[in-house]
Write a structure and sequence with these properties.
- The structure holds 2 protein chains of 2 kinds.
- Chain A has a single domain, classed as Translation Initiation Factor IF3.
- Chain A has 2 helices and 4 strands.
- Chain B is α/β, with parallel strands linked by helices.
- Chain B has 2 domains: 190 residues, FAD/NAD(P)-binding domain (3-Layer(bba) Sandwich), CATH 3.50.50; 134 residues, FAD/NAD(P)-binding domain (3-Layer(bba) Sandwich).
- Chain B is 31% helix and 25% strand.
- Chain B has 11 helices and 22 strands.
- A 6-stranded mixed β-sheet of chain B has the order 5-2-1-9-20-19, with helices on one face. Chain B has a 4-stranded parallel β-sheet with strand order 13-12-11-17, covered by helices on one side. Chain B has a 3-stranded antiparallel β-sheet with strand order 6-7-8.
- The longest helix of chain B is centred in the last third of the chain and has 21 residues.
- Chain B is globular and about 65 Å long.
- Classes of the chains: A alpha+beta, B alpha/beta.
């Protein structure tokens, strides 16, 4: 059963939400999802670009009150 | 009141010394017992490894005896923890001893796992251990020309280390008079030259000025040490004559073996610095899963908060403050210039232009560090 993990990277800058996503992708199984919470609007572009290049799947990106909720599925 | 600290690195040592001073009266009266368990009798200044790789420090300068850094009231033992029994408020050590505690602080740090990347151990150098840094220095001194490539795995200690190393490589080969024979190739896993926006904004034009070539979105997949090619997840490849890797990291084995956190990263409240589900267990430094930099700087500021809070809880029953995400990191920009990055959960990083004075402050801090871990600076 695929699992979903939430990664709260709000108000963090170094190494930043995308790097935290990459580190945590290693810890989940193929098919599982990671939802990254980020207050850095650059993440909304940076995460999908990385996901596409490396070969995982974007599930959704939504912004709620200045917080981006970016959901990624591990595909390989 | 039994306070047990696991880990004699930056965070654990500062915490122990800070508590020893704040609770001096209680310790003398026998009301508090303060114990520090470590896997080593030596304390290593890890940022010095970069300088060892470039011949600017020697390995002996990295170490002090841990006992010499600690207040005499700290009961220090070289006896690593093998089992954690948080439900019983006790740990078991390698010697078989059981330590019971009322308050536990875990500061076990992180380790490199280059073996996670096929071929990295055989094909790449690094500066994340003494052995690695010494070997890299030899390779750099022997290098006569060709491509020096860097690859970066995630997560890793010291987020700015890749950038620092590139600038130091540039100055190193200039000093050797062979910079024109060396291609410096920087490969980085995200779509900027650094994951931290202001570092990327500063470093990119500096790379251009220094003639450092770079490829972004290069997530290292495997290294072929025979063909001397490193391959990326994205399907690209980089030929090298000397490969320097920032290896992937995990938390310590004992943390993973005791199932305290996936990957060895312990789930920790980013403000209170308590382990999720265990209010009497604090976690500081690289061992946490908090999305802050894995640096001695974060460990230092976290240790101060935890020390204040533990002491206050013992004396008054209530903690006094929360960790605000504070980090302060020097960034070497070559042999004679440096800048720094300072930020917290609220204040954005604001990189100043590199200067000689900040470089010399960093060089001085390489010695002043020993005052920091004594809890004095």
């Amino acid at each position: 059963m695929p699992e979903k993990k939430v990664l709260d990277a709000r108000n963090t800058f170094c190494p930043g939400p995308l790097m935290e996503l990459i580190a945590n992708m290693k810890l989940i199984n193929v098919g599982d999802e990671l939802e990254v919470l980020s207050t850095d609007k650059g993440s909304a572009n940076d995460v999908p670009e990385w996901v596409k290049k490396v070969g995982h799947q974007m599930v959704s990106t939504t912004e709620v009150n200045g917080v981006w909720h970016i959901v990624v599925r591990k595909a390989k | 009141m039994r306070i047990l600290i696991i880990g004699g690195g930056t965070g654990g040592t500062i915490l122990a010394n800070n508590l020893a001073r704040r609770l001096a009266g209680e310790i003398r009266a026998g009301k508090v017992r303060l114990t520090l368990l470590s896997a080593s009798d030596k304390h290593m200044y890890q940022p010095g490894l970069l300088y060892v790789a470039f011949g600017q420090m020697t390995p002996d300068q990295l170490y002090r005896d841990e006992a010499s850094l600690l207040e005499s009231s700290v009961d220090f033992r070289v006896d690593p923890v093998t089992e954690f029994h948080l439900d019983r408020n006790e740990v078991r050590t390698k010697s078989g001893k059981i330590h019971e505690y009322d308050i536990l602080a875990i500061a076990t740090g992180a380790r490199i796992i280059p073996q996670e990347v096929p071929g990295m151990n055989e094909g790449a150098e690094h500066f994340y251990t003494e052995e690695g840094a010494v070997r890299l220095h030899k390779r750099l001194m022997e290098f006569q020309g060709g491509t020096v490539a860097m690859v970066v795995s995630i997560p890793h200690k010291c987020p700015v280390a890749p950038v620092e190393a590139m600038f130091m490589l540039h100055d190193f080969f200039k000093a050797r008079g062979i910079r024109d024979k060396v291609k410096l190739q920087y490969n980085y896993p995200v779509n900027h030259v650094h994951a931290t926006a202001n570092v990327a904004r500063w470093a990119k034009p500096e790379f251009d000025k220094a003639g450092i070539e770079y490829e972004t979105l290069f997530n290292v997949k495997e290294v072929d040490p025979v063909k001397k090619i490193v391959y990326s997840e994205e399907g690209t490849e980089c030929k090298y004559d000397l490969l320097i890797a920032i290896p992937p990291h995990r938390g310590m084995e004992t943390i993973e073996e005791n199932k305290l956190g996936q990957g060895g990263w312990i789930p920790t409240d980013r403000f209170k610095l308590t382990m999720n589900g265990h209010d009497n267990v604090y976690v500081i430094g690289d061992a946490t899963n908090i999305p802050v930099s894995k640096t001695g700087s974060a460990a230092h500021f976290e240790a101060e908060v935890v020390a204040e809070n533990i002491a206050s809880v013992i004396k008054t029953g209530v903690p006094v403050r929360e960790y605000d995400g504070k980090v302060y990191c020097f960034i070497e920009a070559g042999y004679d210039r440096a800048t720094y990055n300072a930020f917290d959960y609220v204040n954005l990083p604001d990189l100043k232009p590199p200067s000689k004075s900040i470089h010399w402050f960093k060089v001085a801090y390489n010695q002043m560090y020993w005052t920091t871990v004594r809890g004095l600076l």
